[in-house]
Amino acid sequence: MNQQALIGAGLGLRGPHVATVLGCTPRVGWWETHSENYFGGGEPVAALERVRERYPVSLHGVGLGLGSVEAPDGDYLKQLAALVARIEPALVSEHLCWNRSGSRYFNDLLPVPRVEGALELVARHIDATQNALGRPILIENVSAYVAFERELCTEAEMLGELVARTGCGVLLDLNNLYVNALNLGVDPLAELARLPRHCIREMHVAGFEWLDTTAIDSHGAPVCDAVWALLDAALDRFGPTPVLLERDTNLPPLDELLQEYAQVEARVEAATARMAAKASRSAEEATC
Predict the structure, then answer these.
(1) Closest Cα partner for 172 from 147, 153, 194?
(2) How far is C-alpha 5 from the geometric centre of its chain's CA atoms?
(3) Of 3.40.50.170, 3.40.190.170, 3.20.20.150, 3.40.50.1370, which CATH number belongs to 9-287?
(4) How far is the C-alpha of 264 from the C-alpha of 138, rounded, in Å?
(5) Where are the domains of the chain?
(6) What residues have CB less than 8 Å from 66, skipping those under 6 apart?
(7) Rg, C-alpha atoms of the chain
(8) pLDDT tens digit sequence for 113-163
(9) Strand pairing partners for 11?
(10) Prediction pTM value
(11) Is 201 helix (H, G, I), strand (E, B) or coil?
(12) How many CB atoms lie within 10 A of CB 281?
């Protein structure tokens, strides 16, 4: 079973939808699932193998905590490496976050303060992870609800430097970027401009919800107009890139989710057409 490249639009695969996917094989370009849900083997992994026989698959982790002070957990890496070897995913991704201190684990994706020493620490942990898996990984930007004093760079600048130091790629989550714009005043277009064009290997879109005056990255609502607009801007900057629609809570029936997925597909196709038209105009101008 060879790795397959991700092309166009994909959809997050969640447990309640697996049987439907296997039963009716919907027209979806590729699926992404959370790595940890398939640690330990058993029927879930067997079902994911059957999905993998029909579609490209991407593995997306939420538990590694690359920004924690401690090195990546050895048992976690062994389980992830075994899953990667069995499924042969097109891509493997994790978050630029921390989630533990000593023996205490936190069920959250906590943002890494971009202070002195943080870049070197995260780079070491990415190197260790890539060595354990025998392949490069993607690192995702995260939502944040507080800002830190005396930070040395923006999140986009840190991601770009991690790419340069480790050879990893970037998974650009546009909903997270927009949530940070609402909560912290981050300029999302400026962050897009700071990311090297070559480093974006995958993008995510999702929905958020309000808790009083705070935007919460819940992945439990439809994509809003502002995130769709960010997707168009990102596709124009980085070119046709695999784009995933995520939905983790308030999970609707698959048929309903596929209607929103069609919007992702249409926007990726429109961006591809815009790039082709631009290339054609440039070629015509060059021959004049």
Answers:
(1) 194
(2) 15
(3) 3.20.20.150
(4) 21
(5) 9-287
(6) 72, 94, 95, 96, 97, 98, 122, 125, 126, 129, 139
(7) 19
(8) 999 999 999 999 999 999 999 999 999 999 999 888 889 999 999 999 999
(9) 31, 245
(10) 0.94
(11) strand
(12) 10
